[in-house]
Design goal:
The complex is a heterodimer of chains A (801) and B (225). Helix content of chain A is 49%, strand content 16%. Chain A has 801 residues and is α+β, with helices and mostly antiparallel strands. Classes of the chains: A alpha+beta (801), B alpha/beta (225).
Chain lengths: 801, 225
């Protein structure tokens, strides 16, 4: 019985699709476009939010998380990293964890293969316990042995392929930082959402793991990740308390100024975070979650739009099918049979849309994955997402059938069968109007939000941070390179005509919103303590970045007296120190941890924190030593890059040059906002098209329903503008209602998004005016054809029907 | 078979109330051939709608085969209608998207007739009504007379006990109208109870009993001579 019913229902559904191909196309295309977007975004969120499936017991494995609490700083945040000194403390008897491991991830150059060519791989330097903590299993060899041996490497499949192609990697030799290492294991590629991304694994004690001096012992620093497994029966809260106590009591913490712990104050905080929670913690992740939530909301809004379209158009078509349903009722069709028929017809459409969506997702997944930098192609045909998609289509089929079925079931049979068609009830008309208004609201919400996000992204890209990045290249020094080689490289570049200036720094300005901070006092006064961002630079720094000097000059420290330290502070630091003008800062002595630095110059305000954080006062200590990043400027970017790449191999023959433009590096901070803003913009275009489809069909219905009235009005002298106004009155109130809801929501969500930024683009009413304008334009375009048709109606034909 | 006691039907539109049927009392036995006549707006089609359970009375009792169906909900009414009541309309009411055979077969979709038997019944109905050669055609491809014959085939294929015809010849010329009346007489002769609304005195005279309505009430209920 059910089979017969289902078969007849599918046939009816198929017949309905063919009966009105334009309607069917509009509905299926709209639904499948919305479903495709939802599916791809769903895959993205699944990749980002669900824990790595190979993780054994992710609730019991924790990542330790550090937050500094420097006096004078208001903007501290959980960093997602922890001091490596914690690992040593956790290795002591009475440890609150059963296993622990440090992880430091860096890009390392390998020389390998028959051609002995250079390749850069992402290496995770880890302790052996990482194998058990992350459930790592070798495809070949022994990964545990590889991590216990400083001269061994475990490669991922991807890493092995890059170094050795199709050849067997196990047992092969590679050269890393001058040392020969053996490939002891090959492991599967980490999942896209793995917290431990790597191409290769090496022992934490491997010589290639270049850590700064004191990295393993310092407590007040973030150096990398430290993971641990909870003791049986212990809770995360208990472990957090225990590691906080370890931090508080650590001998290394006592060397910080008394202000750090005055009045019971905590100098810093340490906590344990279960691995399942890690993707949601920290300001970067939270921002990413905010943007992804925005994307998800956009996808759902589009789906809602497509469904509203379908329900509206389906209801209109049901009213035209009153006679058919009355005939069926007269032949004995029960309300439940009619409802079932609607569900099957509707599910036919939604499932067809779902299949198209799957095909579209398959085609678009590579581009989408490139765009969001998360490969998704392999997941498109995974069982769980496919089944979820089909189930969603079935649920949508049921939900979108409810109202049209209700209309059909409550159609007065006798009237319909005697030829007196029943137009929609007042309640039905109101519902259809509300749905149409919702469509307008959704389109305006999407358009408004897209303008806000893209406007903010554009604003951030052009923000004046007090320094120029155009024409600059940043060259990252290999960790293994000594100071002599670095200086020799710089010297070699300085002699090239393509290079005008060069300067050392920790990294490219604008690439690191966090940075290193120092707590300073004036002279020998213990209070107050000033927090400043600490940078080490060389004398050409301000010329390279074109940062103006407002007072003093750049004076190098003495080459012979190690206690002589000179620094330039920025205008922000001058104000933080309570000084009235820059000149007052010249000659000031600032002290930090027993060392005194002399202020020799004041620069314009420099903001490295980007748009998200407040500007920190900056201190630039001038040093004679090279640092990790060499910034170069030249008259021609192309020649500059060519010169750098040609010079590099002479000094770093075993390393691949890491060169990028400083502008690109700074822009990378806002890549998420820029990319996702573009995605939301694309969704809003789709939303406008969907709403346009809906308006087009409803305009057709409105004109058809009002044909007799229009014609009679024309016969009685109504002009074209009267007719247009009459029809416009059908949509104008709905547009107004949609604007109220949609623009209101866009304003609220836009404000919420922008509240994450300290530097906010002043967009005023433009996003909302643009959204309203776009929807108005869409409505006019969609309705024009039918309005023109209404104006051309021939009375004699219309009245004789 | 059918007993109507004090059946009333009111139509409400805003503040305006129209009494379409006014205390109708009627008994119809199995096998009766009843013609319902009267001027336009007297309630003929409304009465037919109530008899066919397509409409519910505002008050009164309607006993069909011993059950008072006046207060039944739509689900139960559809159950009773299924296979027991057939309808023929003035405007044929065929479904344009279905072929002739599919339109006729529609009547068997909701009943318990086995799938294997359905084809045979539809074929037999088409043969009897002379439309078998048009089985695959759409209603829009048929003449008015042919369309009405398809409608009659649909009405009778489930072998209903009661056939309700609302001006079945209203849209036909006299030749086709006579043809339809002949078929209806044959069906009644085979035992099907037939209630027909008609404006035509000639056709009304062919019935065994004539019910004349005026302003929603029974004016005359006479046995044909």
């Amino acid at each position: 019985m059910l089979n017969k019913f289902t078969r007849l229902g599918w046939r009816a559904g198929w017949r309905q699709l063919l009966a009105d191909p334009a309607f069917s196309a509009i509905v299926i295309v709209g639904l499948s476009a919305a479903l495709t977007v939802c599916y791809l975004i769903g895959l993205l969120m699944r990749s980002q939010l669900l824990p790595d499936p190979v993780l054994p017991d992710p609730q019991r494995v924790v990542s330790f998380d550090f937050k500094s609490n420097m006096p004078g700083r208001e903007d501290e945040y959980w960093t997602g990293q922890a001091p490596f000194a914690l690992y040593m403390a956790l290795a002591q008897p009475g440890s609150p964890v059963t296993q622990s491991a440090r992880v430091q991830v860096s890009d390392v150059t390998f020389r390998a293969g028959t051609q002995q060519s250079l390749s850069k791989l992402k290496v995770a330097f880890s302790d052996a316990d990482i194998v058990s903590l992350f459930g790592l299993k070798a495809i070949q060899g022994d990964v545990l042995a590889a991590l216990k041996d400083r001269n061994s490497v475990a490669l991922s499949q991807r890493g092995a392929e890059r170094l050795f192609g199709n050849a067997n990697a196990l047992g092969q030799q590679v050269l890393v930082a001058g040392s020969s290492l053996t490939i002891r294991a090959v492991v599967p590629n980490p999942a896209n959402n793995s917290l431990l991304p790597f191409d290769a694994l090496m022992s934490f004690e491997a010589p290639a793991n270049s850590l700064f001096e004191g990295a393993k012992e310092e407590w007040y620093t973030n150096t990398g990740q430290v993971y641990g497994r909870l003791m049986p029966g212990a809770t995360v809260a208990q472990l957090s308390e225990q590691v906080q106590a370890l931090l508080d009591q650590a001998p290394g913490m006592k060397k910080y100024p008394p202000a750090f712990t005055a009045n019971g104050r905590k100098a810093a905080f340490l906590r344990a975070v279960p691995l399942v929670q890690v993707p949601f913690e920290g300001p970067t992740n939270r921002h990413r979650m905010l943007v992804m939530t925005g994307l998800a909301v956009s996808a759902l809004v589009m789906l809602l739009l497509a469904c509203i379209n379908y329900v509206n158009l389906s209801t209109v078509r049901t009213l035209r099918r009153q006679r058919e349903f009355s005939i069926r009722k007269s032949l004995g069709a029960s309300p439940s049979r009619l409802f079932g028929q609607f569900v099957l017809e509707s599910s036919f459409v939604t499932l067809a849309a779902g299949l198209f969506a799957l095909a579209l997702a398959w085609v678009l997944a590579p581009s989408f994955g490139d765009w969001v930098e998360m490969p998704l192609q392999e997941q498109v045909l995974d069982t769980l997402p496919c089944v979820s998609l089909m189930l969603t289509c079935i649920v949508l089929g049921i939900l979108t059938a409810v109202y049209p079925a209700r209309v059909a079931i409550h159609t007065p049979c006798a009237e319909a069968l005697s030829g007196r068609g029943h137009s929609e009830s007042a309640a039905g008309k109101r519902l259809r109007q509300v749905l149409t208004a919702l469509q307008f609201a959704a389109a305006m919400l999407m358009a408004g939000l897209a303008v806000v996000v893209m406007g903010q992204a554009r604003f951030m890209e052009t923000l004046d941070n007090g320094f120029k990045t155009e024409g600059l290249l940043a060259i990252t020094m290999p960790g293994s390179a000594n100071a002599q080689t670095r200086l020799a490289f710089q010297e070699a570049l300085a002699h090239q005509s393509a290079v005008s200036f060069s300067s050392w720094g920790f990294d490219a300005l604008g690439s690191n919103p966090g940075g290193i901070h120092a707590s300073l006092t004036k002279g020998s006064e213990p209070h107050p303590v000033y927090d400043m961002r600490y940078n080490e630079i060389s004398e050409n720094f301000f010329s390279v970045y074109q940062i103006p000097l407002l007072a003093g000059q750049v004076i190098k420290p003495s080459a012979t007296d190690p206690k002589d330290m000179t620094a330039v502070i920025d205008l922000g630091a001058v104000h933080a120190l309570g000084l009235k003008n820059p000149q007052d800062a010249i000659g000031l002595a600032l002290q930090s941890r027993g060392r005194v630095v002399r202020v020799v110059g004041v620069s314009g305000r420099v903001k490295q924190e980007g748009a998200r954080g407040p500007a920190s006062p900056q201190l630039f200590r001038i040093t004679l030593k090279p640092n990790d990043a060499l910034i170069v400027r030249g008259p021609s970017n192309e020649k500059l890059r060519k010169t750098v790449l040609e010079t590099w191999p002479r000094y770093f023959p075993n390393e691949i040059a890491d060169v990028d433009s400083v502008s690109n590096i700074a822009a990378a901070l806002y890549k998420i906002d820029s990319r996702y803003g573009s995605l939301i913009a694309m969704c809003s275009v789709l939303a406008l098209l969907l709403a346009g489809f809906g308006v087009y069909a409803l305009a057709a219905y409105t004109v058809r329903r009002n044909t007799r009235e229009i014609v009679l009005r024309k016969l009685h002298g109504a002009s074209g503008s009267h007719i247009v106004l009459r029809l416009a009155r059908e949509f104008a109130p709905l547009l107004a209602l949609g604007a109220l809801v949609g623009l209101g929501a866009a304003w609220y969500l836009g404000q919420h998004y922008q509240s994450n930024f300290v530097a906010q683009a002043q967009l005023g009413v433009w996003p909302f005016a643009l959204a309203l304008g776009l929807v108005l334009l869409m409505t006019i375009l969609a309705a024009t054809r039918h309005i023109v048709a209404a104006l051309k109606l021939r009375p004699v034909l219309a009245l004789s029907e | 078979m059918i007993i109507l006691n004090n059946i009333c039907k009111l139509h409400r539109s805003g503040d305006v109330e129209t009494r379409a049927l006014n205390n109708i009392n009627l008994q119809i036995k199995a096998g009766d051939y009843l013609a319902v006549t009267g001027p336009s707006g007297c309630g003929k089609s409304t009465l037919l709608g109530i008899l066919g359970m397509l409409d519910v009375p505002s008050s009164g009792e309607y006993h069909f085969d011993g059950q008072d169906v006046a207060k039944f909900n739509e689900a139960r009414l559809s159950q009773i209608r299924r296979g027991r009541i057939g309808f023929i309309f003035q405007n044929f009411n065929l479904i344009d998207d279905l072929s002739v055979a599919e339109n006729i077969g529609l009547a068997l979709e909701y009943g318990n007739v086995p799938h294997q038997e359905r084809g045979a019944r539809v074929g037999a109905a088409m043969e009897r009504l002379g439309v078998a050669h048009r089985a695959k055609h759409r209603p829009s491809q048929l003449s008015g007379g042919q369309q009405q014959r398809v409608a009659i085939a649909r009405a009778m294929v489930s072998r209903p006990a009661l056939l309700l015809a609302d001006e079945p010849t209203g849209n036909l010329d006299s030749a086709h109208g006579d043809e339809v009346m002949r078929i209806l007489r044959e069906l009644n002769a085979e035992g099907t109870t037939l209630v027909m609304v008609t404006h035509s005195h000639t056709h009304a005279a062919q019935a065994g009993r004539v019910l004349r309505l005026l302003d929603g009430a029974v004016q005359v209920d006479s046995v044909a001579a």
